[in-house]
Amino acid sequence: GAVVSQHPSRVICKSGTSVKIECRSLDFQATTMFWYRQFPKKSLMLMATSNEGSKATYEQGVEKDKFLINHASLTLSTLTVTSAHPEDSSFYICSGIEGGGAGKPQHFGDGTRLSIL
Amino acid sequence: KNEVEQSPQNLTAQEGEFITINCSYSVGISALHWLQQHPGGGIVSLFMLSSGKKKHGRLIATINIQEKHSSLHITASHPRDSAVYICAGPPGSQGNLIFGKGTKLSVKP
After folding, report:
1. Interchain CB distance below 8 Å, B42 and A108
2. Of B44, B60, B73, B109, whose CA is between 20 and 30 Å from B34?
3. Contact status of A13 with chain B (Cβ, < 8 Å)
4. What phi, psi does A69 have (nearest 5°)?
5. Chain B contacts of A104, Cβ < 8 Å?
6. Does the beta-carbon distance from B99 to A43 stay under 8 Å?
7. 3-class DSSP state for residue A31?
8. Which of these, B45, B39, B69, lies nearest to B59 by C-alpha position?
9. Is the separation of the CB atoms in A22 and A95 below 8 Å?
10. CA distance A60 to A46
11. What phi-psi label fits residue B39: left (phi over 0), alpha (psi between -120 and 50 degrees) or beta?
């Protein structure tokens, strides 16, 4: 099946550091990538939707200057958490769709556990 | 109220038991996803269905669009089935998902 490679799987860093998370679709072209966040014992929540070659659409309450998303190619999307603080500690996971639209299967990365000290 | 509700939240079973996890949703969705999340966090897509029933190995998923209800069944459960099972649906046309809170399944040997 389709594979999304997400790196790194775990990051521990100091407050104020910027952290970049990469998601690569290995065997399909991810026209659309979704970035989700999951706090402990909570549901996954959509942060932003990115379409290749255009600006990401952020959900209400998600700061676009804090969470920079780049989707410059059909196989790579990145999420950069800028000047991370302890409250940004969470599990971040991406998923990709080939061709876009609600009727397509989603392919998830393995997630990144971010811990800010 | 969450737009996607799952029950039960936690489920402990003995190896070999038949498992049922239920999902009800209040939004209009075009297709419902069943996902499996392992302790490390990684998510595997099990099923995407918009009508009827799908089967893959020991897993069966059913959906009733009129009643906005779906079930995931596991036959002959095994300890390796222990995971969090999540149902999710795309509320719009973009394809992004809204998720249930998950059902944590523990299968004891």
Report:
1. yes
2. B109
3. no
4. -120, 130
5. 95
6. yes
7. coil
8. B45
9. no
10. 10
11. alpha
